[in-house]
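In response to reviewer comment 3 from the previous cycle, which asked for concrete evidence that the modeling workflow produces usable outputs, we include below a single protein chain processed end to end. The sequence was submitted unchanged, and the resulting structure tokens are shown without manual editing.
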Amino acid sequence: QYDCIGTCHGNADTLGREMTPLQAAGLDAATTLAPYAGITRLIKIGGIFVKDVIELGKVRFGHTFTRHGEDATEFLINRARGSGQAQGQFLDNQAAARFIQDNLDKIGNGAVSLPLPKNFPARIINPGGTFSKPSSIRLVPGGKGVKTAYPEP
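The workflow returned the following structure tokens.
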């Protein structure tokens, strides 16, 4: 059935113990939570829950994550300052990849700007070094996915 890996209780002494039906139901319920609320979606493989990780390859996502991803803060601060234009940044690459995948069907006629989902982890880096909340996410088609995607002011 279920083996608790210790993280659900916050201590390691539960490692390998079978979960109670209530704990198992709670873990099952976690898979139905909104993926944009900062919660990693879990999938069940052979009775074990694992993170649903999306491969962030260039073929599907272009330069989205190298130029607008969670690890691009310094690059975007410098780019905003140097260009005088605000730059969008995703703060959770997996949430961004999920959003992009869920909306690929909307880019058949060209680039689109889609409303930012509530509590979506993204920000705008302004030329003066301040941060603000984006209003939309731009998807630019390319190849087998997007050429780029980024939050917009």
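The chain has a mean pLDDT of 81. We consider this sufficient to address the reviewer's concern, and the full set will be provided in the supplementary archive.
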